[in-house]
Each structure stands twice: as C-alpha cells, then as structure tokens.
Specification:
Length: 202
C-alpha cells in the first residue's frame, strides 16, 4: 500500500514517485503562471508585438498615400492609386482623374484610411477584434497585389514547410496574420479601451 501511495497515475500508467513529483511541480508552476497572466497577457502581448513590428510601417505607408493639404485625406496621392490599384490605374492611363469615383476612388480612400486607422485601433485596444479582422483582410489583399501585379515571385513568396524562414509572404506575413488572429480570437485583454468600455456598459 505504501508503494501504491507513492505512485502517480496518469492516463492509466503508474509513475515512480520522483517523476510524479516533477509532474506535480510542473503543473503547479505553469498553472500558477496561467492564472497570473489570465485575462490580460495574451491580448496585450499580441498588440505590443503588432505595435513594435508593424504600427510605424503601416502608418508611414498610409501617410504617404494622403494627398497634399488639410483635406489630403479626401484626395489620395497618385502613389496611392498606383499602390492599391496597379492594373486599373494603368488601364486609365495613370490618371486618377480619369478613374470613375465608384468604385475605384472609394476603394483607394478606404484602403488609405484603413492603413492608418486599423493599426491605431488595434494598438489602443478599441474595437480590436473588428480592427484585427480588417487588418487580416488588408494584409491578404496587400499580398495578392504584391504577387499578382508588383512582381513579387520565387524566394520572396516562399512556401509552407520549405525550411527557409525569410520569405515575405509565407513567412513574414503569415506570422503577422497569426498575431492578429490572437486578437480576433482572444480579444485585446484587460489593458485596453474595449475592456474599459465593456465594464462601463455592462
């Protein structure tokens, strides 16, 4: 009976007492860590990683798509059309004034605003799940344009399980999307405006 008391049973298999003690220690340490970080860490960490890696990248890119002057946000630059609608822009002779307002101007406006607003919403944690989902769509469209119209090919695209970790599409941007999925699935965490608003209107 003494020997039986000193055994740890896991999945129907008896473990020697020293190994059982290690398993219990492992469970105690990481269960405690999980409780300590529960509710705030995952969302905060995902937003922090996004901010440190991608916030300035997208803000700079979006800012460069704005037109001149106070109302430049209503009149995107020529570069915005060339970046967002390369084949359509070429079709209309590289003239934004020749493009029909709907849908092409609307698409460029929404793309430009999204590149600035969505990252800011994610970082401050406001409407984070919707913003992260929108950012995922943006990255997918961005990648499609890069590959289909801007000539990204070969090793720059990469592929899954190819043992090379530095391709732009299947390595970098897949990781970007994974970070955003963490926010979509788990939310932004307690250190966010979403959490404060949720408590206010609950």
């Amino acid at each position: 009976m003494a020997d039986t008391a000193d055994m740890k049973h896991i999945r129907g298999h008896a473990l020697p007492a020293p190994l059982g003690a290690i398993v219990r220690l492992h469970e105690a340490v990481f269960s405690g860590l999980e409780r300590l970080l529960s509710g705030w860490f995952n969302g905060f960490a995902a937003r922090f990683v996004f901010a440190s890696l991608l916030l300035l990248y997208y803000l700079n890119s979006g800012w460069n798509k704005l037109g001149d002057g106070l109302f430049g946000f209503l009149h995107p630059s020529t570069g915005a059309y060339a970046s967002i609608l390369p084949p359509i822009f070429e079709q209309y002779g590289y003239s934004e004034t020749a493009l029909p307002f709907f849908p092409w101007h609307v698409i460029v406006l929404l793309g430009t605003w999204s590149e600035i607003l969505l990252p800011l919403l994610i970082v401050v944690g406001l409407f984070s799940r919707v913003a992260a989902l929108g950012m995922i769509v943006f990255i997918v469209v961005q990648s499609y344009v890069d590959v289909t119209y801007l000539g990204l090919e070969g090793k720059f695209i990469g592929s899954m399980f190819d043992r090379f970790p530095d391709a732009i599409i299947f390595d970098q941007r897949m990781l970007w999307i994974f970070v955003l999925l963490m926010i979509v699935v788990n939310g932004p965490g307690k250190l966010s405006l979403d959490h404060l608003l949720g408590r206010r209107f609950r």
